[in-house]
């Protein structure tokens, strides 16, 4: 089984229903981050993301605190034979007139084989950081892949961010727009630090793009960029959905930051305008899953949509729809603001499971028809499953109910 991707969406004090347990703030243990090399100006914050459309390129990013240092990634097929090199770019940015970023490096490794382990290293001498990642399987209908799903948590991820390729979308905390102090370019820190392969999917914007990984076609959208009719994101998504080949990548997964379906009082209906704009497209495309963050809690829906509603038929609540995706709100990775612990009561029929706890999830795509999903609460430990579901593919099994 491929274990190659973690998806990052940058980004009730009492049980809300019989399907939920009480809110919990417990977080066990500490991150097993990379050991700091002893040398001066050693690379930090190493993370990797897919560097092309199909997984044969990976972009390695890192920072050096004092001066640029080496801008080269060494890699190969064995840790004792890093015979290939990729030279990257280096840049810095200022923010607010007082902050100066470290030196930010990005280097893209190209021509990689699918499903291959690539030992790599950045730095030199006493500053070397070594890591190893595995490229995803070649896109194909029965190529298995296991995704890790986490939102909101960034600073403790280094122990896995240099091991598994990440893909990400920006959240509200990444907007960083402050014209009163001269910062008039939104997402400035995010776009400097987190590269995306947007050009490979014909996107004109850093914040909306797609990748193919094994049997999945993953679309990343920006909740905080313009998406009205004829805007660049609107135009790109319309074209991108036409390009999706479900015979090659049957699993269609869409990622946003602000959820379209949310029964928590926090951020209630904030994603409504984007839902109204794009939901019909996703239902027509038979998307399998929509992942969101923003709300510091957890919720999974049934397959529901609002597309049947008109002013005369009275269907003002979400209706069960076999062609609709499942919506998972997983903004529970951790934050400094606390849990969103107030769900609306009674629990709507659209909500399958909801709970105010910190946690993470995995999506294990088995083949073209079936995927197994699990959500873990942090305080339970990794072997305890708090919520689970089998998902059947909407393209190959369009009428099957989950």
Describe this structure in words.
The protein is mostly beta strands and 402 residues long. The protein has one domain (5-36, 140-392): 4-Layer Sandwich (Purple Acid Phosphatase, chain A, domain 2). The chain is built from 4 helices and 25 strands. The chain has helices at residues 158-161, 188-193, 232-243, 272-284; strands at residues 5-9, 44-50, 58-64, 72-75, 84-87, 89-91, 94-95, 99-100, 103-109, 117-122, 129-134, 145-151, 166-169, 209-213, 216-220, 251-255, 289-292, 298-301, 304-305, 319-320, 326-330, 351-355, 359-365, 370-377, 387-392. The strands form 6 sheets. The protein has a 7-stranded mixed beta sheet, with no helix packed on it. Strands 13-1-12-23-24-25 form a 6-stranded mixed beta sheet, with no helix packed on it. Helix 4 (272-284) links the parallel strand 16 (251-255) and strand 17 (289-292). The longest helix has 13 residues, at 272-284. The chain is globular and about 70 Å long. The two termini are 23 Å apart. Residues 6-33 have low confidence and may be disordered.
* Order of strands, widest sheet: 14-15-16-17-21-18-22
Find the CATH superfamily. Metallo-dependent phosphatases
Regions with little confidence, pLDDT below 50 for 5+ residues: 6-33
The ordered H/E elements are EEEEEEEEEEEEHEHEEHEHEEEEEEEEE
CATH topology: Purple Acid Phosphatase, chain A, domain 2
Count the strands? 25
Strand content: 25-35%
Total number of distinct structural domains:
1
The global form is: globular
Helix/strand-derived category reads: mainly beta
Q: What about the largest sheet?
A: 7 strands, mixed
Q: Regarding CATH, which class?
A: Alpha Beta
Name the CATH architecture: 4-Layer Sandwich
What gyration radius follows from the Cα positions, in whole Å?
A: 21 Å
Q: How much is the average pLDDT?
A: 87
Helical content class: under 10%
- DSSP helical segment count: 4
Query: How far from one another are the termini?
Result: 23 Å
